[in-house]
Amino acid sequence: MSGSGGGGWANEPSVDACETLRETTTLNSPQKAVINLLNVGSILDVTVSKQGKAVVVMALYQGQVAGTITSSIIQKLAECIEGGHEYVAEVIELKGGACKVRIRAK
């Protein structure tokens, strides 16, 4: 006789990993003209651009590139964005030309 075989759901994550993806990082290649427009709490859009075979994750403020994101999660972040998930980067610290952001699902 065979068993019910319906088990296993308790070990599966109940939330999509893309929905819980978060990271705090400093923007690379900050664009001074755009960074000067930001305040703590400003919300940036996170987008993916393919440049040849390279994938570049960018933070945009009002359509302008504020900087790029090169943290340890960029591969997963790019996959999630390409899969239809949307992310924002909230400015949590500004020091001189440096901009620290918290990336989260929109």
What does this structure look like?
By secondary structure, the chain is α+β, with helices and mostly antiparallel strands. The protein has helices spanning 17-20, 32-35, 74-82; strands at 23-26, 43-51, 54-61, 64-69, 87-95, 98-105. Strand 5 and strand 6 form a beta hairpin.
Features:
globular, 6 strands, 3 helices, disordered N terminus
The computed structural class is alpha+beta
Main sheet makeup: 6 strands, antiparallel
Helix fraction? 10-25%
Report the uncertain regions: 2-14
Strand order of the largest sheet: 1-6-5-2-3-4
Strand tally is 6
**What's the order of the H and E elements?**
HEHEEEHEE
Mass-distribution shape: globular
The portion of residues forming beta strands comes to: 35-45%
Give me the Rg, rounded.
Answer: 18 Å
- End-to-end Cα distance: 49 Å
Question: Tally the helices: what do you get?
Answer: 3
